[in-house]
Design goal:
Elements (H helix, E strand, L loop, with lengths): L6 H10 L1 E4 L5 H16 L9 E6 L5 E7 L6 H7 L2 H11 L9 E3 L8 E4 L10 E5 L11 E3 L18 H6 L3 E2 L7 E5 L4 E3 L5
Antiparallel strand pairs: 1-9, 2-3, 3-4, 5-10, 6-9, 7-8, 7-10
Length: 201
């Protein structure tokens, strides 16, 4: 079923740089998404697999799977979600044009996993793109949920030598936690400053 954005939602997205959509997925769909994410997590990776898994060392010194990319082409249900009209219709309403899937990934962020550096999403040849984060499980401050700076897509955000946002600028900003229930979605543009801490839950 297609979702119709209100004019207020479109205005808020333009002004804030992000939009939270509650219940993008209903309870059944959210439960299915949890199962699909588990299937990707547990999928064997061999010479014939298209999956791109990444590991990190957690707070206890263990090597754990932290992210998997490039799964849509091998998982029909996830492909249908990410390329389906429900999501693409929302993105069309926000961007004013048809959108294509550029990259997909699942961040697992288990307890003890690290955070992600302060960043902007770089533009690819100045092509407009939007990031969509769909919560598989609840996303909170304690488990390393995303934080954003409202309106930063309209600011000059200085980038340090390590290609992350300059720490001095970061310290001056008000960082807002984005808390999502399973099935909620966060959509934000390329230039919105965002970060996430470690999962201490």
């Amino acid at each position: 079923m297609a979702l119709h954005l209100t004019e207020a939602e479109k205005t808020n997205f333009d002004e804030d740089g992000y939009l939270i959509i509650r219940d993008l997925l209903d309870a059944r769909e959210a439960s299915e998404l949890q199962q699909w994410a588990l299937e990707i997590h547990d999928a064997p990776v061999n010479d014939h697999s298209t999956l791109m898994p990444y590991e990190e060392i957690d707070a206890h010194g263990r090597h754990i799977l932290c992210r998997t990319e490039n799964f849509a082409s091998s998982h029909a249900e996830l492909d249908s979600l990410l390329r389906g009209e429900k999501l693409l219709g929302v993105l069309r309403g926000l961007s004013g044009e048809d959108m294509l899937l550029f990259k997909e990934k699942i961040n697992y962020k288990l307890a003890g996993a690290g955070g992600y550096a302060l960043s902007l999403h770089t533009l690819v040849k100045k092509i407009k793109h939007l990031a969509v984060k769909i919560a598989v499980d609840p996303m909170t401050s304690s488990n390393g949920g995303l934080e954003v700076v409202r309106g930063s897509h309209k600011m000059h955000v200085p980038i340090a030598a390590d290609n992350c946002i300059d720490p001095a600028w970061t310290a001056e900003q008000k960082w807002l936690p984005v808390e999502l229930a399973a099935g909620d979605a966060l959509i934000f543009g390329s230039s919105l400053a965002h970060r996430s801490a470690a999962n201490t839950s």
